[in-house]
Amino acid sequence: MSNPHQNAIKQLEKVSKLLRDSYQDKDRFDDAIKKLKTPQNFFETELEVKMDNGTVRKFTAFRSQHDNARGPYKGGIRFHQDVSAEEVKALSTWMTWKCAVTGIPYGGGKGGIIVNPKELSENELQKLSRAYAKFLSDKIGPWVDIPAPDVNTNGQIMAWMVDELEKSVSLERRASENISATFTGKPIMLGGSQGRDEATGLGGVFILEKLAEKLGHDRKRDVTIAIQGFGNVGYWFAYHADQLGYKVVAVSGSKGGIYVEDGLDPAKTLECKNREGGLDNCLCVDGECHINNGKKITNEELLELDVDILVPSALENVINKDNAHKIKAKAIIEMANGPITPEADEILAENKVLVIPDVLANAGGVTVSYFEWAQNLQGYYWDRDEVVAKLKPLMDSAFEAMWEMLKKHKTTGRMATYMNAVKSVIDAMMLRGRV
Ligand code: NAD
After folding, report:
1. From the alpha carbon of 362, which atom of ligand 1 is closest?
2. Ligand 1 midpoint to CA 173 (Å)
3. 178 CA to middle of ligand 1, Å?
4. Rounded Cα–Cα distance for residues 44 and 178 (Å)
5. Which are the contacts of 427, defined by CB distance < 8 A and separation ≥ 6?
6. What span, in angstroms and rounded, lies between the C-alpha atoms of 183 and 149?
7. How far apart are CA 345 and CA 334, in angstroms?
8. Mutual orientation of helices 26-36 and 413-432 as an angle, nearest 10°?
9. For an engineered disulfide with 282, which of 139, 272, 313, 424 has Cβ 3.0 to 4.6 Å away?
10. Geometric angle at alpha carbon 88, from 85 and 93, rounded to 5°
11. Alpha-carbon gap, residue 134 to 204, rounded angstroms
């Protein structure tokens, strides 16, 4: 199996070859690249939790703080049985780039615990979350490192962690810092931001608007879109794309998907999916058609549809060397993290399929997390429209910066995005005199 941290390092080396020429002082540049290959801090521990049956279980937990030249470390906490030190290091590196892409003032971090949370009771899950927050209490803070939810963690888990952190820190720290701003992705009642739920999907649709404009589509209804995944990200992408007039012709969930040639209504489709327990039950059942003129498709068929834009919004590595040459879409907006393998990326580039990479396409989520932090620190809260109005210009300018780099260097969307991000981190390191 490939080592994700080695992949992140290889990616950085590839970008550095393209960027090196633009730096006069090659030694300082090389020094910066060398530093960025290793997280600045990496913590590992064994958390002990007293289980409901009275036994004590140990869980391995990590936090990686990759780079803070642009601001405090920022990145989610993952609860999964496959979490590893190498994965957490890689994810923290990618967070450094993602925060640089939209220009929010953060570096990159990531945390994880090796656990299958489905095997724990709610009581055990709460104890584990609290043990992790306690372990991190002297390593995180609103101006140091700001965690958030990731795979299998959510607002409830952030709420337990905030509570534990507040209990763990000194009165002096509590009086001088707004401790709740240490975590984002909190429930609204505990300082979460309006608009956070839809932020990632909506941010992706701002990218879609820019892309459609550059590709010369002037009639939105002529632009066909297929979306793999109909969870938080996939649904909100579908909803906002449809609202703006684009034609969403296919969506899928874990059990398969539906294709509707004339375009589907995402809100009604979600309602049907929730009512019927799956998308595959949302066609004609017993003479009653829930979604007209649709047909069932598999997840593989969805990826290979002849559409203008394909939007993987579910899992990693779904476009790989086995199916990349079958992709007929003209462009791919990566809303999931890492849906395209490096081998597939090369095949798609040869076939002139334009890929907008995850660190740009799904950056709306972390950007609204930044808004949550900013609102917590000032103790003044914005309504949903204000959040959306502040998100759009950041996504738009990140896209324009990528496009300019892509044209200038005749490179891929991924390379262009990484070049901008890495350059901004290296410039910050140089300004600080770290290299
Ligand atoms: P989610 O759990 O809400 O939704 C995941 C969707 O994927 C569900 O519809 C599920 O049915 C579907 N799915 C599962 N297995 C599938 C399969 N084999 N084939 C097709 N579909 C399948 O998760 P989410 O929050 O929407 O996240 C989706 C992706 O976006 C992940 O890669 C995540 O890391 C990334 N992401 C999410 C956010 C965010 O704010 N939620 C931010 C950045 C990136």
Report:
1. 43
2. 37
3. 32
4. 26
5. none
6. 9
7. 12
8. 110
9. 272
10. 125
11. 35
Q: Where are the alpha helices (DSSP H) in 169-265?
A: 171-176, 196-214, 232-243
Query: Distance (Å, rounded) from C-alpha 359 to C-alpha 276?
Result: 34
Half-sphere exposure at residue 295, Cβ-oriented, CA atoms within 13 angstroms: 5
Residue written as tokens 């992949």?
A: 7
The dihedrals phi and psi of 55, each to the nearest 5 degrees, come to: -80, 160
Question: What average pLDDT values come out for the chain (435 residues) when binned by 10 residues?
Answer: 86 96 97 98 98 98 98 97 96 97 98 97 98 98 97 96 96 91 98 97 98 93 96 97 97 92 92 87 67 84 98 94 98 96 95 98 98 97 98 98 96 97 98 98
- Ligand 1, pocket residues at CB < 6 Å: 200, 228-234, 252-254, 299, 313-315, 335-337, 362, 365
Residues 6+ apart with CB under 8 A from 304: 323, 326, 327, 328
